[in-house]
């Protein structure tokens, strides 16, 4: 029985990875084209105590290659205690950024970010909403690429890529690999037409469609998940009109956290929403991945006469190789450095950290923006 369970988990995981790798390659990369700027965008940026990152964000907004008359920027202040609001006002004037609006968040639920988005939406006239984060930097042709996708394919929602600013330390590079494993999975899942992940730092959707699926209703008790839960609603309501913009010109960059404590808290926050997924594809894939990581962690126990060491080595090597292939594809797409030794060490340590974070997410609260959120 033990052998059957092991083989089933391994087969399911390896088949999943192969499908994601194929799906990643199958999804075509969108190239820059000269497309009329037909779409009017409202960019929503919730923030809380982001004085450190806002100057870089505002500089990237000033450099955007898109008609100013076709875009408005909505900064939603979630009770900041620093100079964030002053920085937005001063740098908007300095960079001559037009159509900047600064609003105070209206708290209605357990999710500050969802409340911020809803607060902004109540003021919007444009039908296309784009969300990003205050600690991001936007590529020059970001809105142009979104407009291009809208003009050519007429979707209801567009998910797009995000990566970390690359830094040299192993800790920061580990976070990059961990983050890109999610990005690679996201791209691969769209490639095989079973999307179940996206990132709210680079997400666009129609306001009318948002209202049609009743927005965040049903999951606003959860602090996290403004992106994935909304994606699930769109996939259920508009299965053929949710697309992925696989383009280097649309790649948004953000920052890794500085401490292990912050990293664990961030990942616990991300993991805490997984139990509330509504799409069975997301739940099944999550279970397969978690079981494989758990199996990886306990494999050394099987050395004592249960399985041949050759079988164990084969499983370990196969997992690391397939994980690495998906990571390498994603690193090549984001045009970031490939560090084989760091990738190997990360492949060994990743399952243990993942299981620890998953277990912690089941029982523990987490810190986010100097607030404590309970399970």
From TrEMBL:
Residues 42-198 form the Glycosyltransferase 2-like domain. The chain crosses the membrane at residues 6-24, 277-303, 309-328, 340-359. GO terms for molecular function: glycosyltransferase activity. SUPFAM superfamilies: Nucleotide-diphospho-sugar transferases. It comes from the Bacteria. The keyword Transport does not apply. The keyword Transmembrane helix applies. Belongs to the glycosyltransferase 2 family. PANTHER family: POLY-BETA-1,6-N-ACETYL-D-GLUCOSAMINE SYNTHASE. This is Cellulose synthase/poly-beta-1,6-N-acetylglucosamine synthase-like glycosyltransferase. It comes from Kordia periserrulae. The lineage of its organism: Bacteria, Pseudomonadati, Bacteroidota, Flavobacteriia, Flavobacteriales.
């Amino acid at each position: 029985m033990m052998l059957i369970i092991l083989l089933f988990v391994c087969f399911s995981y390896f088949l999943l990875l192969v499908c994601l790798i194929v799906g990643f390659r199958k999804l075509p990369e969108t190239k820059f084209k000269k497309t009329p700027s037909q779409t009017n965008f409202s960019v929503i940026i919730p923030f809380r105590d982001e004085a450190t990152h806002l100057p870089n964000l505002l500089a990237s907004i000033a450099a955007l290659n898109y008609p100013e008359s076709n875009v408005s920027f909505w900064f939603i202040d979630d009770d900041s205690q620093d100079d964030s609001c002053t920085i937005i006002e001063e740098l908007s004037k300095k960079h001559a950024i037009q159509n900047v609006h600064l609003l105070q968040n209206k708290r209605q639920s357990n999710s500050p970010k969802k409340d911020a988005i809803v607060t902004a939406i109540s003021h919007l006239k444009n039908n296309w909403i784009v969300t990003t984060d205050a600690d991001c930097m936007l590529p020059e042709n970001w809105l142009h690429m979104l407009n291009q996708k809208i003009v050519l394919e007429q979707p209801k929602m567009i998910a797009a890529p995000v990566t970390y600013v690359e830094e040299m330390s192993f800790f920061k590079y580990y976070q990059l690999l961990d983050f890109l494993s999610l990005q690679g999975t996201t791209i691969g899942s769209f490639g095989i037409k079973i999307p179940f992940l996206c990132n709210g730092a680079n997400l666009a959707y129609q306001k009318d469609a948002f209202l049609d699926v009743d927005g965040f209703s049903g999951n606003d008790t959860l602090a996290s998940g403004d992106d994935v839960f909304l994606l699930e609603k769109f996939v259920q309501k508009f299965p053929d009109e949710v697309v992925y913009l696989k383009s280097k010109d649309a790649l948004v960059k953000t920052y890794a956290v500085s401490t292990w404590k912050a990293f664990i808290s961030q990942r616990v926050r991300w993991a805490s929403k997984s139990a509330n997924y509504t799409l069975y594809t997301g739940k099944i894939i999550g279970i397969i991945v978690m079981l494989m990581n758990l199996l990886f962690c306990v494999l050394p126990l099987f050395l004592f006469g249960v399985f041949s060491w050759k079988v164990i080595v084969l499983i370990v090597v196969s997992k690391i190789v397939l994980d690495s292939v998906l990571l390498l594809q994603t690193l090549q797409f984001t045009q970031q450095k490939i560090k084989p030794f760091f990738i190997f060490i990360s492949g060994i340590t990743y399952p243990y950290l993942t299981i620890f974070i998953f277990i912690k997410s089941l029982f523990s609260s987490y810190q986010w923006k100097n607030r404590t959120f309970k399970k």
